[in-house]
Amino acid sequence: MIRDGYLARWLGREFEAAPGADGDIRLYASEPTDGFEELRPGRYRRVVPSFEVEELRYVRTIGTWRGERFVVVGEHDSWLRVEYSGGRVPVAERLGLEQMERGVWQAWAPRDEVEDLHEEYS
Predict the structure, then answer these.
(1) Dihedral sign, Cα of residue 1, residue 28, residue 34, residue 49
(2) Nearest to 12 by CA among 2, 27, 23
(3) Quick one: the chain helix, strand, coil %, rounded to 5?
């Protein structure tokens, strides 16, 4: 599973999360969970005060494609959406990446060509 976003540990369980400007943390579950409201089928949310959250961190999936380091920002079937994190324009151009905006280069890469997939936390 490709993950790129906040994770929170609450009552000993890990949830996808989104910190709010109000200081609360929005927790998300994919199945019915006590105290969570259904937003749509397969998506449930509960808002808790930040002091109740045991841990909040950001996770990204990282990999190597064509010898360069990339952040994986999405997936579809057997493809991964990769974003170049090296910061060198000549390398991005040599790899044939699409410039999304200044300094942001992405491509669709076959999953089996992306090596060393792992998660990094901050």
Answers:
(1) positive
(2) 27
(3) 10, 60, 30
CA 83, CA 100: separation in Å to the nearest integer? 10
Structure-token match 């999304």, residue found: 100
Q: Residue 28: which residues within 8 A CB-CB, separation 6 or more?
A: 15, 16, 17, 18, 43, 44, 45
pLDDT tens digit sequence for 62-93: 999 999 999 999 999 999 999 998 889 999 99
Whole-structure pTM value = 0.77
Residue type (1 letter), 73: V
Residues 82, 85, 89, 95, CA torsion sign? negative
pLDDT along the chain (122 residues), means of 10: 92 96 94 96 96 96 96 95 91 93 94 96 91
Residue 101 CB contacts under 8 Å (≥ 6 apart), including other chains = none
According to DSSP, residue 89 is labeled H
